[in-house]
Automatic annotation (TrEMBL):
Official protein name in the record: DNA-binding response regulator
Lineage: Bacteria, Bacillati, Bacillota, Bacilli, Lactobacillales
Organism: Leuconostoc pseudomesenteroides
Domain of life: Bacteria
GO molecular function per UniProt: DNA binding; phosphorelay response regulator activity
A matching Pfam family: LytTR
Keyword Lipid metabolism annotated: no
InterPro entries, sorted: CheY-like_superfamily, LytR-like, LytTR_DNA-bd_dom, Sig_transdc_resp-reg_receiver
Amino acid sequence: MNFYVLEDDPIGQQRIQHYLPTSFITDSPTKLLTALAADTHPKIILLDLEIKGLLHAGINTAKMIRQTDCVSPIIIITTHDELSLQTFQSHISALDFIQKAQPEAQFGKKLQHAVQMAYQRLNQFDLKMPVWLTIHNGAHTETFDLNTISHVNSNNGRHYINVHQSNTTTQIRNTIKQINQSHDKFLQIHASFCVNHDFIQQYRLKDKTLLLTTGDLLPVSRRFKHNLSYLQS
């Protein structure tokens, strides 16, 4: 497992390196982002919030990380307890918030517990080999990793659709019907919506909606509800 740390205090750097000796540690958000972008393996990220006098440097760095990486656990290590609520409201999905100013034994236990939770979080994602899916885009084709597509919806007419992935949405010229037929993981739930069943979290029969693991809430029409009959208890 690779660990990446943003910390500007030399003593703080040594402290973390004592517990995580193989860590990549830097006081530069730019260097951290560059290193993360070059590493395609699972990783755990530790961020201090205040870097070189900039109080929100850690939060801003976390936001940039989340633009391309919604999987890697982020652990906050800081002296600024007052920023805990703001950290939560920033939607960076921080796994834990560790206070620096505590006895060493307590700090070590807290850090080790957070790292253990991070390992468990990564295991839950069940990192899969890509399943490449080629989809027509008008006269051309686009290739997607099926494991990253949560759902597809029609866009401004029947012949344009939006392909929703973890961190991006791609508009192509195609139809919901054709997408639904392109792979058996796709389920059509509405004239305008098709979902990857791996992303289904809950079928809300009473509300006629489908909650995805991404947090998206999609409508289910009467015409296509039979495709979700296996989810009804």
